[in-house]
Specification:
mainly alpha; Arc Repressor Mutant, subunit A; Four Helix Bundle (Hemerythrin (Met), subunit A); two-stranded antiparallel sheet; rod-shaped
């Protein structure tokens, strides 16, 4: 019984090691897996344990056998794929909150802003345009500064405090969204509200 449990644990550990190497790209997708003897030496387990671990990868759809050619990796860990989906969902939720806050801030600022606010908005808009080719971090920081200018123009201290507590999470999310197409889409709503503030009458 004890031997059976130990073998099961070793198999799980071997499978986890294989998956981590696949996820970290130590083993490239489409690459041929080494033979059982080589893998056993690499993982520090017996050949039978390696055989079971590789069989578990097959159950996850991560490897395929090609007759006469060997065993090949098909894709990365489904757990990693699911983590990526969840992370993307979280980023989109953060952007939705940012847009919601800015829309309300713009509504308040449209009637409460003054010339100082307009000057700050114009400077922030120019700074963001200048940062468009300066790298991801510089662009994101400039974009957040522009969002901050809109919120400050609302003259609502509670809204400003709420925005400031949200900034660290917002910055992380925007850096993750630095695929140009996604980032452009995510800022379109905010751009519209800022244009409205700059062109509408006070």
């Amino acid at each position: 019984m004890t031997s059976s449990i130990r073998r099961h644990l070793l198999t799980d550990q071997a499978e986890d090691l294989l998956r981590s190497r696949i996820d970290s790209r130590e083993r490239e997708i489409g690459a041929k897996l080494p033979g059982e003897t080589t893998l056993a030496a690499e993982l520090g387990v017996g050949r039978s344990t390696v055989r079971e671990a590789v069989r578990m990868l097959a159950g996850l759809g991560m490897r395929e056998s090609r007759q006469g050619a060997g065993v090949f990796l098909r894709r990365s860990s489904p757990r990693q794929d699911w983590d990526r989906v969840l992370r993307t969902e979280e980023i989109l939720h953060v952007v939705e909150v940012r847009n919601t806050v800015e829309i309300e801030a713009a509504r308040l600022a449209a009637t409460g802003r003054d010339e100082t606010d307009l000057d700050a908005l114009r400077r922030a808009l120019d700074a963001r345009s200048a940062a468009s080719g300066a790298g991801a971090a510089a662009f994101v920081d400039a974009d957040i500064a522009l969002h901050r200018a809109v919120v400050v123009a609302a003259h609502n201290p509670v809204l400003t405090e709420l925005f400031e507590t949200f900034v660290p999470r917002l910055r992380d999310a925007m850096l993750d969204l630095m695929d140009v197409r996604d980032l452009t889409a995510s800022t379109s709503c905010g751009s519209a509200t800022r244009e409205y503030l700059l062109t509408s009458g006070g």
